[in-house]
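Suppose you are handed a protein chain with no further information: no name, no annotation, nothing but its sequence. What can you learn? This example shows the usual starting point.
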Amino acid sequence: MKLTAEDIAQKTEGNVVGNPDQFIDKVSKLEEGDSLSLGFFSNPKYEKALKETACGIVFVPNGYGHKRSENTTYIEHANPYFAFCTILAKYFNPNKRKLGISKTAVIHPSAVIGANVYIGEYCTVGELSVIGDNSSISDGCVIGDHVNIGSGSTLFPRVVIYSGCSVGRNFTAHSGTVIGSDGFGFAPVNGSYVKIPQVGNVIIEDDVELGANCCIDRATMGSTVIKKGTKLDNMVQVAHNVEIGEHTVIASQTGIAGSTKIGDHCVFGGQVGIAGHINIASHNSFGGQAGITFNVKDSYQKMSGTPAMDVNSYLRSVVAIQKLPQLLKEIESLKKEINRLKETNG
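A reasonable first move is to predict its three-dimensional structure. Written in structure tokens, the prediction is:
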């Protein structure tokens, strides 16, 4: 694959600064590229790498063209990372699109399979399930009965969608993810636990992506819901009857307990723990390993720590904790001085 700077600029609505005929055949980090590499620059802390790069073409923010070195062609863009990802996805994606239905796939006669669909080796598709046009179901996936998969969706190997669940258009689930497993519902009875049937489902809207080994539990009754545009990293647990709003991003190993409702455009770092039956307002951010145990009613907050608090308060508390050993020494010294004075004046 060879692309010229002019080609790339046209496809991304960028502006060439330098040689429009410069071409590339791969993508690289700024530090690792050569004259046939396409790179990107968007963070000012990497200006040294930009100045020293051997990449033939680099996406840069608007206004950076005057900083160009002689051997590098720049493509100015309002969002260099997005432009770079556009080229990456279109021309350098290692997951090549396939078509056709494998002879080893087991598809129920009542299932509806759309146009231009790929179904890989040893997949199963259940009764009355629907797979939308231009979808890709990779090897070993299991689609239960009465499942709806929207058009343009991609399931990587060994994804499981239990019966009665629904995912929207342009949905992506990476390997090992399970959608619709039973919620963790047990009733204590006479010193033991009796399973509560989980008869609800999971509804996932358009443009959602789930990383590898995520678990999205079906609702006890009703639906567990993930709304459009939301992205989950690997190994995220979403419990029964949780609702996650639009365009929320959740990093790896986060766990969300049952019946919690999360608003739109929230951000959760890795290993965040979220208690059940609470509400979190839209446009809030939580640092890694935060513990959220209460309703978060106000928007546009940045929180961290356990229990979660304003990030500035949390950082001050961390500094205070680091000073505790010295403070304890000083307290012991003061106690000794007080006792000495008592004995002197006694």
